[in-house]
């Protein structure tokens, strides 16, 4: 009876929302880089599922309600993009060139690092789209013969790294323009990069949203062309 109670969809859904809300509160109080709501929630929920031996499929039945509302919520990202459209349109050439460089860098670094460490070809291919938002990354991986679960994990890791340290790394260097920081975060860390940009300004979030979209499109287009050239 207790086991059935612990894995009730309503309880799992409440736990997910409660843990995330608590993590946001902790981050607001401490401001510590490691007090990231996504990181804390992920660790706590994995520990809960492992501790009570709850299958992920059971948790997914509860989490589907959050996933359902996340999809239409993405439309909100179009608002700052629309508000800054005139400025973005006037910068189309540097935006396109920077996105090409960012997309190629994201593809090459992931694959060659894995290859250097001796990973099998399927694993190497799975890291090619690590900086692309998850739904697009999974489709790209399946089309080139990679392993989707590995891709999903690396996408989350890339997002967390960007959310935890991306902004501070850029600000500590020579990158100071909100547009450049936003594009970099959106290109390298997809939705999590947008989230950290939203905390700073709508303009930064607009460029981060643009970075996410363009990187997804360019990676999907460039991947089949780059693989023969890279010899992987």
TrEMBL record:
**Where does it live in the cell?**
Membrane
Gene Ontology CC: membrane
Protein's membrane topology:
Multi-pass membrane protein
One Pfam family this sequence matches: LrgB
Could you tell me the keywords of this UniProt record?
Answer: Membrane, Transmembrane, Transmembrane helix
Does Transmembrane helix show up as a keyword for this record? Answer: yes
| Record-annotated membrane-spanning stretches | 6-26, 33-51, 94-114, 147-167, 179-198, 204-227
**UniProt KW DNA-binding keyword:** no
**PANTHER family attached to this UniProt entry:** PLASTIDAL GLYCOLATE_GLYCERATE TRANSLOCATOR 1, CHLOROPLASTIC, PUTATIVE SEROTONIN TRANSPORTER
Annotated protein name in UniProt:
Protein LrgB
Q: Which organism is it from?
A: Bergeriella denitrificans (Neisseria denitrificans)
Identify the taxonomic lineage of the organism of origin: Bacteria, Pseudomonadati, Pseudomonadota, Betaproteobacteria, Neisseriales
């Amino acid at each position: 009876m207790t086991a059935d109670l612990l894995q009730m969809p309503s309880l799992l859904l409440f736990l997910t929302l409660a843990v995330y809300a608590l993590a946001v509160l902790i981050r607001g109080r401490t401001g510590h880089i490691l007090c990231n709501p996504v990181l804390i929630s992920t660790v706590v929920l994995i520990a809960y599922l492992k501790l009570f031996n709850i299958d992920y499929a059971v948790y997914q039945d509860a989490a589907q309600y959050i996933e359902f509302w996340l999809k239409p919520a993405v439309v909100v990202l179009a608002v700052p993009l629309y508000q800054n459209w005139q400025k973005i349109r006037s910068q189309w050439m540097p935006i396109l060139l920077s996105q090409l460089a960012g997309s190629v860098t994201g593809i090459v670094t992931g694959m060659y690092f894995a290859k250097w460490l001796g990973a099998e070809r399927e694993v190497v291919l799975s890291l090619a789209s690590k900086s692309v938002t998850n739904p697009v990354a999974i489709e790209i991986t399946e089309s080139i013969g990679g392993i989707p679960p590995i891709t999903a994990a690396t996408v989350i890791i890339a997002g967390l790294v960007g959310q935890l340290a991306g902004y501070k790394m850029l600000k500590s260097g020579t990158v100071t323009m909100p547009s450049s920081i936003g594009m970099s975060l959106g290109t390298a860390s997809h939705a999590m990069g947008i989230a950290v940009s939203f905390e700073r300004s709508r303009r930064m979030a607009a460029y981060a949203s643009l970075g996410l979209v363009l990187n997804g499109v360019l990676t999907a287009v460039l991947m089949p062309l780059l693989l023969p050239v890279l010899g992987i």
